Amino acid sequence: xxxxxxxxxAAGLVLAGAVHAQTPAAPKLVLPQASPPASLKQQVxxxxxxxxxNRPGVKGRKIFGGLVPYGEIWRTGANTATKIxxxxxxxxxxxxxxxxxxELFTIPGExxxxxxxxxxxxxxxxxxxxxxxxVARVTARVAALASPVETFSIWFNDVRDDSATLNFTWExxxxxxxxxxxxVGMLAPQVEAAMASNAEKKxxxxxxxxxxxxxxxxxxxxxxxxxxVAKNPGQHWMLYRKGLLLEKMGDKAGARAAAQESLxxxxxxxxxxxxxxxxxxxxxxxxxxx
Length: 290
Description:
This protein is an alpha+beta fold and 290 residues long. The protein is built from 7 helices and 9 strands, in the order H-E-E-E-E-E-E-E-E-E-H-H-H-H-H-H. The chain has 2 domains: 37-180, no CATH class; 183-288, Serine Threonine Protein Phosphatase 5, Tetratricopeptide repeat (Alpha Horseshoe), CATH 1.25.40.
């Protein structure tokens, strides 16, 4: 009896396996996430900043003081803790932060937030948060928005060569944190080295404009600007910028002379949008330094 039962059992197992093999696998569903992921990249000067976070929605709920309690640590988004990366050292709200990737936590309050740069990089949410791993803590005021923002947003504004603002908006709350980078400190040694080299062609104009735009060593900027003008005669746009540099240095007579020379060259150009633009720019400069 046993000898007959074993073949039958084996046949049954083979048949079951065949049926299972013929059964199609359930289709993989790709569904929308409740809080979709987002990535944000911004360059400030030569510093690259990247933020990776998830964006929850209001969806009819009370957010701050409700879903997100006041006075408690928050992941600054949803799902995994928000990440922020700085390619160089920065100052966030005046506090130094070395280059690197960090978690970005916040403690929302009714009138102010605490914004935290944290170095523990293995967290889901904020459950393993430990204050001893904080790199920086910054206090920022809360401003009320006139119109509500449905989806939590992190964004940058007021971007300049050496600064920007890091913004958080959700519901009717807006929080702004100032951010600065020492762009001149990082680049000035490179500029000086380039200008001191034995290269046949040096970036006189670019170096002069970098110093001008950053209010750094304006006498040296003028020296380079003069060299650029001498090597590129008849360039009205370059003479106009020489006038701007002299204006910033307080040399009204020099600025007038540069603007007048530029204007005389512009007037010889063929009629067109560029000609009209530099006519206006030079006339405005002459009006300021008369």
